[in-house]
Protein backbone atom coordinates (compact mmCIF):
# COMPACT_ATOMS: atom_id res chain seq x y z
CA UNK A 1 0.00 0.00 0.00
CA UNK A 2 1.40 3.34 -0.98
CA UNK A 3 2.17 5.86 1.73
CA UNK A 4 0.53 8.49 -0.46
CA UNK A 5 -2.84 7.27 0.81
CA UNK A 6 -2.08 9.14 4.04
CA UNK A 7 -3.01 12.30 2.12
CA UNK A 8 -6.65 11.20 2.31
CA UNK A 9 -6.72 11.56 6.11
CA UNK A 10 -6.85 15.41 6.20
CA UNK A 11 -9.61 15.38 3.60
CA UNK A 12 -11.68 12.97 5.66
CA UNK A 13 -10.89 14.74 8.92
CA UNK A 14 -11.94 18.14 7.66
CA UNK A 15 -14.86 17.13 5.48
CA UNK A 16 -16.51 14.47 7.63
CA UNK A 17 -15.15 15.34 11.06
CA UNK A 18 -16.61 18.82 11.13
CA UNK A 19 -20.12 17.38 11.13
CA UNK A 20 -19.38 15.68 14.45
CA UNK A 21 -17.53 18.51 16.19
CA UNK A 22 -19.78 21.39 15.19
CA UNK A 23 -20.03 22.64 18.78
CA UNK A 24 -18.99 25.82 20.54
CA UNK A 25 -18.34 24.12 23.88
CA UNK A 26 -15.86 23.02 25.05
CA UNK A 27 -13.33 25.73 24.34
CA UNK A 28 -9.93 24.40 23.30
CA UNK A 29 -7.10 26.88 23.85
CA UNK A 30 -9.76 29.61 23.89
CA UNK A 31 -11.18 28.54 20.53
CA UNK A 32 -14.54 26.94 19.86
CA UNK A 33 -14.30 23.21 19.26
CA UNK A 34 -14.93 23.48 15.51
CA UNK A 35 -12.18 26.08 15.03
CA UNK A 36 -9.78 24.05 17.17
CA UNK A 37 -10.63 20.98 15.06
CA UNK A 38 -9.83 22.80 11.84
CA UNK A 39 -6.58 24.24 13.22
CA UNK A 40 -5.58 20.75 14.40
CA UNK A 41 -6.14 19.34 10.91
CA UNK A 42 -4.14 22.12 9.29
CA UNK A 43 -1.19 21.28 11.53
CA UNK A 44 -1.69 17.53 11.01
CA UNK A 45 -1.84 18.06 7.25
CA UNK A 46 1.62 19.61 7.31
CA UNK A 47 2.93 16.70 9.41
CA UNK A 48 1.33 14.11 7.11
CA UNK A 49 2.72 15.80 4.00
CA UNK A 50 6.19 15.85 5.57
CA UNK A 51 5.92 12.12 6.30
CA UNK A 52 4.83 11.42 2.73
CA UNK A 53 7.65 13.54 1.32
CA UNK A 54 10.27 11.89 3.52
CA UNK A 55 9.15 8.37 2.62
CA UNK A 56 8.41 8.86 -1.08
CA UNK A 57 10.99 7.02 -3.19
CA UNK A 58 10.76 9.70 -5.87
CA UNK A 59 12.38 12.18 -3.47
CA UNK A 60 15.45 10.10 -2.73
CA UNK A 61 18.62 11.21 -4.44
CA UNK A 62 20.46 8.36 -6.08
CA UNK A 63 23.71 10.23 -6.78
CA UNK A 64 23.36 12.88 -4.13
CA UNK A 65 22.16 15.37 -6.72
CA UNK A 66 18.39 15.23 -6.94
CA UNK A 67 18.07 18.52 -8.86
CA UNK A 68 19.98 17.18 -11.87
CA UNK A 69 17.49 14.33 -12.30
CA UNK A 70 14.50 16.61 -12.73
List the helices and strands and how they pair.
Elements lengths: L7 H8 L1 H4 L12 H23 L15
Organism: Pandoraea thiooxydans
Keywords: Membrane, Transmembrane, Transmembrane helix
Protein name: Permease
Highlighted features:
70 residues; mainly alpha; 3 helices
Q: Can you give a write-up of this model?
A:
- InterPro entries: DUF3311 (IPR021741).
- Pfam families: DUF3311.
- The chain is built from three helices and no strands.
- The mean pLDDT is 84.
- The chain is elongated.
- With 70 residues, the chain is mainly α.
- Helix 1 packs antiparallel against helix 3.
- It has a domain at 30-55.
- The longest helix has 23 residues, at 33-55.
Q: Span from first to last CA?
A: 25 Å
Order of helices and strands: HHH
Shape: elongated
Largest beta-sheet characterization = none
Low-pLDDT residue spans:
none
Care to count the β-strands? 0
Percent helix range: 40-55%
The percent range for strand residues is under 5%
Number of helices, counting only DSSP H or I runs of 4 residues or more: 3
How large, in whole angstroms, is the Cα Rg? Answer: 17 Å
The average pLDDT score comes to: 84
Class from helix and strand fractions: mainly alpha
Quick description:
The chain contains three helices and no strands. The protein has 70 residues and is mostly helical.
Amino acid sequence: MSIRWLAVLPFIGILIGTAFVNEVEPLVLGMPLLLAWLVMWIVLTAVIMAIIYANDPANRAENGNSEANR
